[in-house]
Each structure stands twice: as structure tokens, then as C-alpha cells.
Amino acid sequence: MIPEIGHFALILALGLATIQTVVPLYGFARSRTDCLAVAAPAAIGQFAMLGIAFAALAFAFYGNDFSVAYVAANSNTHLPWFYRIAAVWGAHEGSLLLWMTLLSCWSLAVAAASRTLPREVASCVLAVMGAVSVGFLLFTLFTSNPFTRQFPPPAEGRDLNPLLQDPGLVIHPPMLYMGYVGFCVAFAFAITALLTGRVDSAWTRWTRPWTTAAWVFLTIGVTLGSWWAYNELGWGGWWFWDPVENASFMPWLVGTALIHSLAVTEKRGIFKSWTVLLAISAFALSLLGTFLVRSGVLISVHAFATDPARGVYILAFFAIVIGGSLLLYAIRAPQFEAGTEPVAALSREGLLLLNNIFLVVAAAGVLLGTLYPILADSLGMGRISVGPPYFNKVFIPLTAPLVLLMGAAAVMAWKRTRAEVLRSRLWVPLLIAIGLGVAMPLLTVGAGALAAIAGCVLGCWAIATALEDVVRRCRGRRIMLPRNVLGMALAHVGVGVFVIGISLVSGFGGEHDVRLAPGESASMAGYDFTFLGTRHVEGPNFVAEVGDFVVRKDGEQIAELYPSKRRYNASGQTMTESGIDVGFWRDLYVSLGEPLSGDAWSVRIYHRPFIRWIWGGAFLSAFGGLLALSDKRYRRRARAGKAVASDRPRKTAYA
Amino acid sequence: MRWRLVIPVVVVLMLIVLLGYGLTRRPDVLPSALIDKPAPQFDLPTLASDRERIRTADLKGKVTLVNVWASWCVACRAEHALITEISRRTGVPVVGLNYKDTKEGALRWLGRYGNPFAVVAFDRSGEVGIDWGVAAVPETFVVDRQGTIRYKVVGAITRDEMNDTLVPTLERLKASGS
Q1: Is the torsion defined by CA of A270, A276, A281, A283 positive or negative?
Q2: Cα separation of A20 and A123, whole Å?
Q3: A236 and A117 fall within a common domain
Q4: Per the domain annotation, does B1 fall within a domain?
Q5: Option in A295, A301, A305 nearest B158 (CB)
Q6: Of A220, A484, A264, A489, the residue nearest A356 (C-alpha)
Q7: Chain A 461-520, residues with CB within 8 Å of chain B CB atoms
């Protein structure tokens, strides 16, 4: 019964989403307020229905209802309850349901905030989001219904993919999807701007917090994905340039560009059509990511079971939504172009323009690498896969100057900055960056790896310039700096920390493959890893061989590590669980290979200096975004929005 | 309407055409040109030793599974357990074709995940892979007693594929005596 209620709720949600789309757009065309007013209640109703559907599926998982085919395929009575709930989004159908539920959360948030927006704008935004929701609901109901029953029900489920049985899975997909779907709000604002013909500073001020919120979620989602891969894949790496990873990274790059371009549009009233295009592109890439992951067009070489009908549907949906939006853009955007003034190279907007170019080109590079296998195939060049060497070659030269620019932009004023000002303000951070950047690796991991030290200097430069800006602005002020300024500084510090992490882990990290019998040791980077032996452990739904390792430094024991090899009972798949000693300066990472003759095992040992800084930096950036979001200026939106509805750039004390 | 603003639409249209084309090219559905043809000739050193060699002729006389893999291939890791299981269940020897890889990488991979292969041919340059029509790694070929390719899987083997087609095909070929 419960699954039928869920199914029925999905159908009702489709009805409400259709109303949410059609009626307000009719009201918009005919200027009828009564029709416009339908949008918010419809969005709330849709949220309730999707909430019921989601709860119904979660309940089916919790209660081990194997008569539901999707539950039987992805769960098992021996699976711990929290993984049973997380298994809701463990495969295709449930992921879509999660996608739509989160979209309805965003719609609800827009509906709740709609009192602060002009009714016309709020209703139009909700209508566009409703249209996206209609597309996904149709897709789910016709090709990927998670509530389909099977008869007779199997006695036991096939279990959740063991790769996904990790705490990371519980939160990673919801965060990632919140980010993906969140760009739908920016997209809806962009379409509204095209329809109403208004891109003014009020519009950017409405759009900015939504974009930042989506970006924060996406940042956290991508970071958790990387952290999950590090823990679960047993390779000691944190990014693999896998198509699925790229699918989440491209919207992030364009979303980052969008945040910066929105700032320029708000402060200077320029880049308008570019900002709108970016907002459309960020969501287009989110949809493209969904397509790439779900259609099997690339994944066919990556062992995901797929259904061509789904691919065709998503592609058609993509073509209608994005093709249609861009057509609308081509027709309506010229009106935003009037009266643009030239941009000075030595100005904040000049550097932000460069930032946008680098970010967009980087995203295009990732897109090209991701799609190249299909492109090559279509040109008759055979099937190829594009690996990390390509991405590293393309990506690093594009991002290094970006970080360099980021530091300079922090001290740059809008409109025009005199070169002397730059020189006088930048030499202190520069000296600090060089000093710290060289000293830090020397004191912690040693000399060598010049490129890594250069990267470290670059990271310190980002941090030093961001802090210089904060310190200078604080000087002589009694009150706290506004949170959006602090947020920006923190986000940039995060980037610096992240760059230091990447540079040092790739420059100074080490790995070792050794054969160890019980009692034997191997050493790496001054640490001695002693293998004591393995024991047999039974988990809830797996059996494991757990290795006992003791790590010593200078004869003193500093850690005990328990890497294991798990064999999951239901699927028979084996998984490597690495043993990691987490540290601020370095991780020690051991993973078990295969049992060799006797009691010996092949063991892989990693030394990963500064790897925590990678995720730490990313989380700092996300936190910076949150801080900026909490700024008062966004909560005063209603009044401020009316006050500056004109098209003139606003001048603020802290611009 | 300014033509510059039409560029995004054109780009997206091209992208859609490309992706649509990609959808039609389902390598696991398209029949391979090599099916029911004799296995292409090769003569390669084994991974274990440069002095030992493995040739096409070595495939004759028994049903074999030829699995093309590389240590840099993520999907190969996913199918690794299944390859081991197929070999155990059917008793068919698995010949590995290590494709565009380094010796150290390949040996390390086998050390870490276990070696399901009876013998591994080491195709560093990937030339033999080209003869076999290898488009993406992994690929798996079923070769019968006469050295004829009878079935091919592109991409990682899935559990369903193993149960529904690969194992039955291997059992049938073993039983048929041909």
C-alpha cells in the first residue's frame, strides 16, 4: 500500500508541477495577478507530494519491502538501517526521486522568499522551475518508476553496491544534487530576466544568494565525493578525472564564474548578457552531467547498466530546455547590451573578466576531455579513453594563473586602479607568500619537487592577499566587516589552502608496494609500518580479513591501522577498506592487497602529506560562501530591491 | 538578433547531435566484426618473463577467455572479481592481454587484486590490441577450441552478463566438443 501511495503522490506532483508552470506563465502573458498567485501554493503542494513519495520509498527500504523491484535490487535485510535509508539514492530511480525532491525544496524556498520579490518575478521563476520538474517527473513516471512492484517478491534483496556502503554516500549525493538542482534557481532567474527584459542590480541581488547557496552545496558535494573516493577506492588518490567526477566539476567551474560575474553585474551594471548566459550554462552542465551519468553514453565503458530509452529521453529534455533557453537568449539578450562601457584591464572587473575566461575555458577543457571519446568515435578515429595526463596538462596551466589573478583582484578597485597602488599593496603579501611558501615544505616534508614548492608559494599568495585585504579594511574601523566581504576572503583563503594541499601531496607524497609477512616491517618517509597479522571479522553483511599494523616513528609508536578486505555476502564482491591515520600535516594510509603465500600479504603503503588541506580548503571555501549568504544585505532584499530597481550601478562603502 | 548570440545555440545543437550519435553507438549491442572469425595472430612476451612467449596457436585445443585489461583502467578493477569467478566456475583458463601498460604497473595491479589469469600477454605498444579491434579497455573475448572468436563483451562484465551469457556460452562451447 505504501509504495502505491508514493506512486500516486508522484502523479499528483506531476499535476501540481504542470499547474505551477502553465497558470503563472499564462498570468504573465496576460498580466493577470490571480494566475500569477497560483505559483507559490502549487510549489508548496508539489513539495508536499514529493515529500510523501520520498518518505514512501524510504519507508519501503526501511521495512525491507522486496516486492518493490528497486528496493529488492538495492537493499538487503542485513544492511544496517542507515545504509538502507541511504540506499534510496543508491541507484538510478531513487537518485531521480532525490533530484526532484530537492528541486521541490528549492521551489519551496523560492516560494517562501517570494514575498520579498515582485510577484511577477517570483511567479515566473517558480513557473520555470515547475517546467523542469514536469520534465523530470515525466521521465521518472514513464521510464524509471522507483515504485514498480515485482511478483513474487524475492526472499532477500540483492544488496546495495558495496562501493556505496560508506558514510560518504549517506551525505554526498544529497549535497551534490542540492548543488546541481540549486543552479536551476539561477537558471529560472535568468529565464525570467529574458522574459521580463530586466537585468538590473535588483535582479542580480535576488539571484546572487541563490547562486551562492547552490555553489556552497555543490562545493561540499564535490569535496565529499573526492573524500569518499580516497577512503573507499583504496588508491590513495583524491581525484580521478572520471566522467562522473567531471560531470559534477563542470557545473562547479561555471557556477564559480557565475558568482563572480554576478558581482560585476551588480556593482557595475555590465556583463549582463554574459551573466545570463553563464546562469543558463551552469544549469545546462548540471543537466548534461545527469545525462552523462544516466544515459550510459560514456558509461558504457564504465560498467553501469543502462537503458537507451532513458538516454534518448534525457537528451530530448536537454535539447528542449537548454536549446529553447539559448534560443530565447539569442532573441532577447541584445537588449541588455546597450550602453556598455569599456572595461579597464587594471580594474577589479577587468580581472574578474579574466577570471571568467579562465574558468569557462577550463570547464570547456574538461568537457572536451569528457566527450572526446564520443567525438573521436564519431569522426571514425576509433574508441579512445582520455585519462588524467590530458586533464592535468590542460587544467593546471589554466588554474595556476587564475589563482595568481585571484590574489591581485582582492586588492583591485572597481573601475580603475593605479599601478602604484597595486605595487604598494602587493609587495608585502608577495614576500610573505614566497617566504612561507618555501619555508613550509622545507620544514615539514623536505626539499625537492620544485613545481610543488611553486604551487605552495601560489597557495600562500592567495591566502596572504586575501588576509591583507581584510586587515587593511579592518584598520581604523570599529565595526565588524560585512559578512559578504569576510566570506569572500575566507573562500579565497580556502582556495589557497587547497592549492597548498594539492601541490604538496602530489610533489612529496610517496607510495610503496611491499610483500609483508607477520612481524615484518616496511618504512617510508621516516615511518616504520609493522604488519602484525590478520584476523577474521564478521560484519553485519560482510566478512572481512582485518590487518593489524603498527606505525612507529623513531622507535615510538604513533598509530595503529586496521586496513581490511571485505567480502559482501549478498553480492560476493570484495572491497578494500583502507586504514588511515589522519593528521593535519600528513595521512598515513595502508591498504591490503592480496594474500600471498603463507601468511604474507601484498600491502600498499602511502604517505600523503597535507592531503587534509585539500578538503579542508574546499570546506573553508564553502564556509566562506555560507558566511557571505548570511550577510544582512540579502535579508533586506525587499526594501533594497525597490530602492535600487533602477539600472544604475550602486556605490557602496565596501565596494 | 545578433549573430554572435546565436553561437551558444549552435554549440548546444552540435553537442546534442554528438550525444545523440553517441547514444546510437552502443558498443555492447553492435556485433563485432571479429565474431566467428579466427582470433587475430599475435606473438607476445608474457608479463611474467620476457623470454616466455604466447602465440595465437596457444589458444587452440581448449576453450579460453581472453580478457584485455590494464592497470590504469578503472572498469577493469570492477570486473576483476567476476573474471576470477568465471574462471573458477567454468574451469576455463583466462588469458590476459595487458594493453598499453607498464610492466611495473601491471605486476603491482595483479599483486594488489590477485591474479585470475592463466597467463598474461604483455602488449606494451597496443599493436595486438588494434588487431583484436580493442576500442576501450576492458574487453573480453570467448575463443573456442579451433581458435575462433565466438563472443565478445565490450566494457566491464556485469554480474547479469556473466550469469546470463558468458558462463552459458563457455559451458556450451566446452560441452560441444567442437
Answers
A1: positive
A2: 9
A3: no
A4: no
A5: A305
A6: A264
A7: 513, 515
- Which are the contacts of B131, defined by CB distance < 8 A and separation ≥ 6? B40, B41, B42
pLDDT higher than threshold 60 for residue A642: no
- Cβ contact, residue pair B22, A377, below 8 Å: yes
Would you list which residues of chain B are within 8 Å, Cβ to Cβ, of chain A?
Answer: 1-2, 5-6, 8-9, 12-13, 15-16, 18-23, 25-28, 72-75, 78-79, 81, 85, 108, 111-114, 135-137, 154-160
Backbone angles phi, psi at B119, to 5 degrees: -155, 150
Q: Please write the tens of the pLDDT for every residue from A538-552.
A: 988 888 989 999 999
Tell me if B8 and A326 make a contact (CB, 8 A cut-off).
yes
Q: Is A154 within 8 Å of A72 (Cβ atoms)?
A: yes
Weakest mean pLDDT among A266-280, A498-512, B68-82: B68-82
Domain assignment of residue B134, given as a range: 29-176
For the stretch A227-282, pLDDT in tens is 888 887 777 788 888 888 888 999 999 999 999 999 999 888 888 889 999 999 99
Per the CB < 8 Å rule, is B16 touching A382?
no
Domain extent for A267: 162-417
Residues A275 and A365 in one domain: yes
Are A297 and A396 part of one and the same domain? Answer: yes
CB spacing of A301 vs B136 below 8 angstroms: yes
What is d(CA A482, CA A633) in angstroms, rounded to the nearest whole number? 9
Which of A333, A371, A383 minimises the CB distance to B5? A333
The pTM of this model reads: 0.81
Cell (9 digits) for B138: 576492458
* A231 and A364 share one domain: yes
Q: Which residue of A has its CA nearest to B84?
A: A573
A404 C-beta neighbours (distance < 10 Å), count: 14
Per residue in A104-124, pLDDT (tens digit) is 999 999 999 888 888 899 999
Residue B24 falls inside a structural domain: no
Domain count, chain B: 1
Q: Is the same domain home to A219 and A142?
A: no
* Residue-level pLDDT at B28: 45
Closest CA to A249 of A262, A260, A238: A238
Mean pLDDT over A334-353 rounds to 80
Per-residue pLDDT, averaged over A641-646, amounts to: 39
Q: Is residue B19 part of a domain?
A: no
- B165: helix, coil or strand? helix
B46 lies in some domain? yes
Judging contacts by C-beta atoms under 8 Å, the chain B residues touching residue A379 are none
Report which DSSP code applies to B157.
P
What does DSSP say about strands B94-99 and B119-123: parallel, antiparallel, or unpaired?
parallel
On the question of pLDDT at A301 being above 70, the answer is no
Residue A44 has pLDDT above 90, yes or no: yes
CATH of the domain at A91: 1.20.120
Decide if A593 and B111 are in contact by the 8 Å CB cutoff: yes
My answer on whether omega of the bond before A152 falls inside 30° of 0, hence cis, is yes
% of chain B at pLDDT higher than 90? 12
Q: List beta partners, residue A149.
A: A68
Domain count of the fold of chain A = 3
Q: Among A11-25, A393-407, B28-42, where is mean pLDDT lowest? A: B28-42
Average pLDDT score over residue span A507-533: 89
Question: pLDDT digit string (tens) for B152-161?
Answer: 887 788 888 8
**Where residue B126 sits, what CATH number does that domain have?**
3.40.30.10
Radius of gyration of chain A (CA): 26
Interface check A582 vs B, CB under 8 A: no
The grid coordinates of residue A124 equal: 515566473
Q: How many CB atoms lie within 10 A of CB A628?
A: 27
Tell me the CB-side half-sphere exposure of residue B89, using CA atoms within 13 A: 15
Check A322 against B27: CB less than 8 A apart: no
User: Is A631 inside any structural domain?
Assistant: no
Determine, for residues A572 and B81 on separate chains, whether the beta-carbon distance falls below 8 Å: yes
